[in-house]
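User: Hey, quick favor. My workstation is busy. Could you predict this chain's structure for me?
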Amino acid sequence: MKILHSKAEMTAATIAWQAAGETVCLVPTMGSIHQGHLALIAAARKTANRVIVSIYVNPTQFSAGEDFDHYPRTLDADCAAITAAGGCDAIYAPANMYDDGHATSIVPAGVALAMEGQTRPHFFTGVATIVLKLFTHIPANFAIFGEKDYQQLAVIRQMVRDLDLNITILAQPIIREADGLALSSRNLYLSAADRKLAPSLYAEMQETANQIAKGTPVDAALTSAKTRLVKAGFGKIDYFDLRHSVNLQPAEKLVPNCRIFAAIWLGTTRLIDNYAL
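Assistant: No problem, here it is.
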């Protein structure tokens, strides 16, 4: 397993594999590798001949006051975890993806405007820009993303389609703990008490979906869920919505291919999750 730090090395390795007739799948991460990431890597191995895992904590998707300075940076442990789970062909761990004079960004609209686009308006500009840069450094055949960050997946699919990028985007279903909590690097921030409460979000999404399926009006079901979450001890709710899975527009009634999307604070940790009806 190669650990590469320079764009030139990473691009050359990718092109050499493809010249030999092999396909390449990129697994973009910010490190702090957990079972969710390892599931992405395992799926990538089934898809392509070669798998590259990128590890880079991207500063442009954090705003002032967010957790960029405290975000886990554990490259040695990440490499060990990936190796123990079967490895990959290369880890791309650049020190910096932005030159001092960097002045160009991708500003997505469309599916980027709702939910995260309203509560964290800087976020998808940072995500789209770094992902496009990664696709330039690593001209892979495939890239795979987790459905936990479903809106992010939708934004990347939109960017690939709109900019005619020659890469296929794959999706991996959400990986959860035994109690239902969606795996996330930020779960490390949860206190012991908050960790016990956190799975209630998933349970509440399931219950809300059941109520809607039984005929409860969507607005009433969502309002009741938010009330119960606050009473249980959750903090600010950025959103708890039923939306169409493709265009992320609000769904006013139960329709095929829709999801509940949630972003809610628990202590100092912001949990995001989604649930397909």
